[in-house]
Design goal:
The protein is built from one helix and six strands, in the order H-E-E-E-E-E-E. With 121 residues, the chain is mainly beta. The chain has a single domain (24-120), classed as Thrombin, subunit H. It is globular. The relative contact order is 0.22.
């Protein structure tokens, strides 16, 4: 039996509506290792995607204490178009700062967007 809950045009409409709710533009950067010509490597970050529609939202702040040291982390969720390529450890440059992708929520049926959990660098 074929599932008739969503037709192809329904999903396309939902994806188009989600795009309209992405007011930000971001650049997605990926790390590469470049030889330093002395047997080692240096780390470089380069834009792999520019001016990508997105929406960045704060999830709040988490605190932890380890070895008498207080660690405060600001956490964010980034919403991207469902077809956008992004991987864990990419960097995202937004007008408010640079963020590291901690995880990417993928592999869901009827996806209308891609969610990334981020931390500010």
């Amino acid at each position: 039996m074929v599932n008739q809950l969503l037709q192809d045009n329904d999903l396309a409409y939902m994806r188009q509506q989600v795009l309209q709710a992405m007011p930000d533009l971001v650049n997605i950067q990926r790390r590469s290792l470049v030889s330093d010509k002395q047997g080692g490597y240096t780390e470089e970050w380069a834009n792999v995607y520019q001016n990508v529609a997105a929406r960045l939202a704060s999830k709040g702040v988490s605190e932890s204490v380890e070895e008498n040291r207080r660690d405060v982390k600001a956490e964010f969720t980034l919403v991207l178009p469902h077809t956008q390529s992004v991987i864990q450890a990419d960097r995202v440059v937004h007008t408010s700062g640079t963020y590291e992708v901690q995880s990417v929520d993928t592999g869901k049926s009827w996806s209308s967007s891609k969610l990334c959990q981020m931390r500010r660098l």
